[in-house]
Amino acid sequence: MSRALLGVLVAAALLFLVGLGRGTLFDQDEAKYTQVAREMLRTGDPITLHVNGTPWFVHPPFYFWLVAATGRVFGFSEFTARLWSAVFGLVGAYATFLIGARLFGPRAALLAVVVLVSMFQYFAQSRLAVFDGVLVAFMLLTFYAFLRARDGESHSLVSAGLWAGLGTLTKGPIALLLPALVAAAFLILRRERLPIPRRTLVVAAAVYALLALPWYVIETVRHGLPFLRTAIGYYTVNRFLGVVEGQSGPWWYYAPVLVLGTFPWTACAVAAVLYHLRRRIEGSLLILVWIGVTLTFYTAAGTKLPNYVLPVYPALALGIGALWDAAMAGAQPARRLVGWSLGGTVLALGLFAAELVLFSRMKYPGYLAVLQQHLVTVGAVLSGWVLLGVVAYAAGRPRLSFVVLAGSTWVLAAFLVWQTLPLVEARRPIKPVAAAVRAGLTPGVPLVGFRISDHQTLLFYTDHPVHWLDEVSDVVRLACRSSRVIVVGRPADLREVRPMLVRTGAVLTVIATDELQALEFRRSRACRSLPVPR
After folding, report:
1. For FRET with 307, which of 111, 255, 356, 500 sits at 20 to 30 Å CA-CA?
2. CA-CA distance, 460 to 517, in Å (whole number)?
């Protein structure tokens, strides 16, 4: 490994790891996935996953094994929950370098790594306790093994089976399907056949099967049709053919996702696509096929989420790295495209800010009201920083311009971790409320999450089984069966519950905030006197 690559990876590690444990786990996925790992240790069952004491057939177990391992050694915390995403974010960056060096040379590959780790969505996903970065890293290693096999190293196909198997054990067959679709489309367009002996193909398939299939077989034997209907039918087949959990979107769904996710390289990504469309070399064709197949696949799928297109970012980064490499070498077409894209970066910054504001206004209007002045400051600093990169390029300093543009993500990260996050945390009461509730909980005491969206974080931070209830009558019936109940919910919702319970027992406020409250109920009268609404 060269010193330059090592330096880039160290800088990326700082970007991904510094302040990683700051901030409460986000609901749903961060808290749910970490709780699944915790319950894996509690049940002693590494095969059948559980959440809230119930079998959970949504995803395979590899990622949860990793989180459970660090949780067992170091305890479960925000840092240990997010650590593996950061680690595999670095693995994905290194795999991108290996692919780029083979396609475009080491300098273009190094530039691509800098671009990738500084893309907003890749940076963000590498700091969240989710497994998309793990999946993408395995996909990239699979694809690198394919490139080596195509170049005559046939034994590398066995490595492809290994990485694709681990990827399937992380998030299902997509780990094999997507790289295979890209590779097949590329070979068809090149009118090539993969020069692999049949025996090597059999060994590669066997390695893949030994890693990917046992979990599915064991769970089918254990749970039968309920597992198959859920894991294979609903969360695999229906995820593509239908809509899972209401997560749909229009055909252009991923356009704004990529505008936001590729910042500060948004305009450069467009320029890179144009650049590679004009080139008649196999590296450019492969990048274009990779981007096109991935976007077509996820656009055709019925279920859509922003994180699905994370595999596109390494391809875009490789394209951008090759473009900047040519511009730094003095190639006029590349220099003109980079200059044009830097002008477009100013527009991209405006789009980036507008998308963040619109998203916050729709989903987190309370946070937006608090953060307005802070966001103006962040926007002003970023604008000045990007402008510095534009001026450096206009002054004939393309290397400085590249470094400044990439550095905008480190500047943004400093603001997000040390200034934005504390402001957001001040309006997220779940952790202190859960801590107060947990202090008063004993085994067997029912804990109710009443009409709250923070249910997975409540489960994780109390580390206690939770009844998720939406009807007042259900809360009252549960209280009828128990001498003591703790109910957590929004103040407005708890005002419906409190009068029903206070007539027949003492209702004590455990902790109250503007956003969330916890009420402790101790029944003092006979159950028959409880007013159960019909």
Report:
1. 111
2. 17
Residue 129 exposure: Cα atoms within 13 Å on the Cβ side: 32
Give the chain's length. 534
Using CB atoms within 10 Å of the CB of residue 372, give its burial: 0 to 12 exposed, 13 to 18 middle, 19+ buried: exposed
Chain segment 362-385, per-residue pLDDT in tens: 555 655 556 667 777 777 778 788
Q: Please tell me the predicted confidence (pLDDT) of residue 367.
A: 59
**Token pair listed for 244:** 């899972």
pLDDT of 352 over the 70 cut: no
CB-side neighbour CA atoms (13 Å) of 283: 18
Burial track 26-50 (b if 16+ CB lie within 10 A, e otherwise) = bbebbbbbbbbbbbbeeeeeeebbb
For residues 453 and 470, what is the distance between their CA atoms, to the nearest angstrom?
11
455: pLDDT strictly greater than 90: no
Using CA atoms, how far apart are residues 455 and 433, in angstroms rounded to an integer?
12
User: In which residue are the tokens 């000045």 written?
Assistant: 384
Q: Are 57 and 226 in contact (CB under 8 A)?
A: yes
Tokens standing for residue 522: 């101790």
Residue 337 in tokens: 């495209």
The two beta strands, 447-450 and 467-469, are parallel
Q: Residue 503 is which amino acid?
A: R
Q: Strand 467-469 vs strand 484-489: parallel, antiparallel, or unpaired? A: unpaired
Give the separation between CA 183 and CA 187, rounded to whole angstroms.
6
Inter-helix orientation angle 282-300/312-328, to 10°? 150
Give the CB-side neighbour count of residue 201, counting CA atoms within 13 A: 6
Helices 132-150 & 312-328 angle (0-180, nearest 10): 60
Task: Inform me whether the pLDDT recorded for 194 exceeds 90.
Answer: no
- In tens, the pLDDT along 381-401 reads 787 888 888 889 988 899 999
Task: Determine the average pLDDT of the residues in 427-455.
Answer: 87
CA neighbor of 273 nearest in space, from 326, 328, 306, 317: 317
Q: Is the pTM of this model over 0.70?
A: yes
- Tell me the C-alpha distance between 193 and 389, whole Å: 44
